[in-house]
Design brief:
Elements: E1 7-11, H1 15-26, E2 42-44, E3 50-54, H2 60-65, E4 71-75, H3 76-82, E5 88-92, E6 98-104, E7 115-119, H4 122-131, E8 136-140, H5 147-150, E9 156-161, H6 165-169, E10 173-181, E11 183-187, H7 189-194, H8 196-215
Parallel strand pairs: 1-3, 1-4, 7-8, 7-9
Antiparallel strand pairs: 2-3, 4-11, 5-11, 6-9, 6-10
Helix pairs in contact: 1-8
The protein binds phosphoribosyl ATP (PRT) and magnesium ion.
Length: 216
């Protein structure tokens, strides 16, 4: 299969890159370099028209929104935080799956009237507790949320949970489910129009790859 247009796809290193590779391979796209080994941020592939751009996970929607890249792969957690950026989100890739949860110390006191919640997911946390009519104080962190309740920074945390091992290792338990998370393909609106045939062709093959991997 040949694409008529050049296509740039933004991906983050780590689990998203690893898990998206087999889906891209299904579409006949193979990068020449491994971003874990190379310091290059723009990777050529065996398809001369297709380049992979390596970006920090939380920056992917921004690059796609501004049209600096045509497409991207971003976790639903990241997309939920960004709010409406006018991106198309046509495909759930069903990779990098986990759950966004409220967690805390087991059998903790009910805590103060106004609970303190530590998280990097401020917007999602706000929405979750507002929907329950609960007033909370949110403390923004950039990582290692599990530490916060252990040292009295917060009563609870909101974080992603996959196996549950990280919570367990820190003596925390999941308390409330906020959302099921997986990585989504996002598309810039202008690219969707201007490169329509190529984008929809790639989308169709990726959809087929997702369905095949879910069935297999
Ligand atoms: O690390 P950096 O700050 O650059 O960015 P990032 O952490 O957002 O990137 P990365 O690559 O770690 O995660 C990319 C995307 O993977 C996230 O945006 C999620 O959509 C998705 N994902 C899926 C996860 C997990 N599973 C996950 N388990 N992201 C993070 N985790 C972390 C979680 O935060 C917690 O610390 O893993 C820990 C929990 O795992 P378990 O298995 O111990 O429960
Ligand atoms: Mg990380």
């Amino acid at each position: 299969m040949e694409f008529n247009d050049s296509l740039t796809i933004a991906l983050s290193k780590g689990r998203i890159f690893k898990q998206v590779l087999p889906l891209l391979a299904h579409a006949g796209i193979e990068p020449y370099e491994d971003p874990e080994l190379s310091r290059k941020l723009i990777l050529e592939t065996n398809r001369p028209q297709v380049k992979l751009v390596i970006i920090r996970a939380s920056d992917v929607p921004t690059y796609v929104q501004y049209g600096a890249v045509d497409l991207g792969v971003a976790g639903k957690d990241v997309l939920m935080e960004q709010g409406d950026t006018g991106l198309y989100e046509p495909l759930d890739l069903r990779i990098a799956r986990c759950r966004m949860m409220v967690a805390g110390v087991p059998d903790a006191d009910p805590g103060p009237e106004r609970l303190r919640i530590a998280t990097k997911y401020v917007a999602s946390t706000e929405r979750h507790f507002a929907a329950k009519g609960q007033q909370v104080e949110i403390i923004k962190l950039y990582g290692s949320m599990e530490l916060a309740p252990l040292v009295g920074l917060s009563n609870l945390i909101v974080d992603l949970v996959e196996s549950g091992n990280t919570l367990k290792a820190n003596g925390l338990v999941p308390l409330e489910h906020i959302a099921d998370i997986s990585a989504r393909l996002v598309v810039n609106k202008a690219a969707w129009k201007m490169k329509h045939a190529s984008v929809t062709e790639l989308l169709a093959i990726l959809r087929e790859a997702v369905e095949a991997s879910v069935a297999g």
